[in-house]
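Posting this for the archive.
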Amino acid sequence: MNLKKTLFLLIAGICALGTVSAQSPTSHDITSLSQWGPYSKEYFGISHIADLKSGIQVEFCLVTGQYRRNFKIPNALFEAGVHPWRVTPDMKHITFRHDIEWKDRVYVDATWHILDDSRVLLEAHCVNNTDQIQNINLQLAARKSGGSQEQWTPEITPTFKSLKEDFMIKYPEVELSYGAAWNYDMSEVRQFRTQKLENLMHRKVHDHVFKDLKGDLKGHYLVNFLRPITLGADRDTTIYQLIVCGTPEFVSNELANFHREGADIELARLAESDMKTEDDCNDKYAFGRQMLQATLLTNVVYPIDALGEPIRHFCPGKNWNSLYTWDCGFIGWAMSEIDPGKGYEIIRQYTTTPEEEAPFLHHGTPLATQILAIGDVWKNNGSDEETLKEIYPRLKRFYDFMTGPRFMKASGLMETWNIFYNSGGWDDYPAQWTIRPQKELRIHTSPMVSNAYYVRCAKILRLMASHMGLKQDIKEYDKDIETISNAILAHAWDEESGYFGYVVHDNEYNPIGLYRTSEGVNFNMGLDGVTPLVAGIVTPEQQERLLGHIFTKGELWSDCGITAVDQSAPYYSVDGYWNGTVWMPHQMILWKTMLDLGMPERARQIAMTALENWERECRDSYNCYEHFLIESGRGGGWNNFSGLSSPIINWHSAYFRPGTISTGFGTLVSGQSWSTDLNSFCATLEFDKDMIGKETAFIICAKPGQEYTITINGKKIETAQNDGLIEIKYRIGNKPATVKVY
């Protein structure tokens, strides 16, 4: 076989990517994922799962550095100078930027190309943008994690053999053998006997003799050492390594083939069509989306225990390698804009069937963001009826538990303190934080978010039930909506502050007032105090005051967007985690609410402010942060965070990705079709019955460069257009709306 054909097959992939196992109704794994993926809980790189039920993976990571100066270990648990950089939606091409000399002076872009179930090609593009010659080193480290690795013994120590430019390794608890090959003469293979690579490797930078380096002996890493790699001033080079798994014979043959054929750099460059990550978006916010997409797709870990099943799980960040219910609603929501199928799987992952004891997978804030997300996730999966039939009863099971007698008070209000301290995800929100140690007061107090968001969830599910003709379910939702809404309006409004408050009850759970500071100030001047707006239940006068708080600078509005706590409140702080910062998740919910209210200008204000701040921070730091500090406008918190920052993806799609329609919560896109060139569109919209006679808004992002004609139910409408972006206000009638754009 000639060289060109060999490398073409390597890069394109001979076999389709497989999955580890088929999904059953009670499985909570993401089965569309490959056996290869960035699943390590500790290091950036690639892992292979031979047996999903085992909880074991074989990991590979790339250590860079300046030769005989330092080793840059790609630890994912602290800021280590490694950035998820570019990942294709199918996760077949995963690139990390490894800083050697900040910023953009000396670096390695390491791309892990998943070729098939057996092989990965590592492409290390080494760049020197300085006017000095640079000597760098590359080290590919292999280890097994999971299984019996807590205490290594001779019985579980791997066996391996190595030549000068390859190695093969076999772990006793793993059926397959693994190997790696490279074509770089100045190299050797070493062992690091330690549990954590960083505990030993940093201390061995200047050990130039020994090949068996011993630390705490609680783990084992087999490491190749390519050095020195000399880069001339303003020069770059690319080095390839092949990673293989399979039978010993298969691995040996693949390594030999790699050595025999070599790696032609020009041919090994992937076709642009195979590496696209931004769906042809080249707007001024595309880089921020690229970085967040890469971060979201690499924040995936294995194993996580889900009702006894070891699963692969998209986490908020590798610092949180556990289930996170409310974060993962946002992750699935955003994922549906990148890979709709995976987005649906993430939403489904947290729901259960009657055969399972748990009503849903729970950890953290008990808000059903999976229900808030489902309209968009279903739309992005083609509004498929079979999908709706599967997910609706699972979501209803989640909803029924959370609105059941365990949480509902005699007043008609709910509180969820008895399963988690955090009502709205806002850890140090003043009302929540100060009431937390007061157990008796806490269990008699109802925050608004636990009520208002479940009213909105009821309306979302009611709209889906209406679409499916489930009349009895509609009656149940009607009753819940009426009960909770009436209780909010009767007991929670504070005329003085213009916010809704935490409602305090007596021992019989009758409302007796609002939770206030010692000076009598409503303790809920913040996001929780405006959540009834999301439910769509407030009076026109209340709506006006709440919108005033949200969009008045110095109250909830800031240059970074909507903050958690009113800046004029006596308990506002500039140095809190949520108090004094701007986060994305509740802004996403308020953005959808602005569309429900027929206010696309306000929706755009929220989204564009977030996109602008996100883009600026990503370009400056190459990091994806949790929040923005109001005082400085800079990002803060975990540096490789997707989780609650994921709405950036949704906003970018809404305004900059042709082929996207965005609506409020009260609108269901029950069918849509786009032309191939994305310059004509037809959709059917259904509406929540409480919105009849009211104005709503929706956004259509079509192909730029032309003016469009828009009709609704055959009637032409006039609306502002901005190079393919169309914002439509529509007064809802008694029947669905057929929208056409051409």
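The chain has 18 helices and 36 strands. Confidence is low (pLDDT under 50) at residues 1-22, 265-273.
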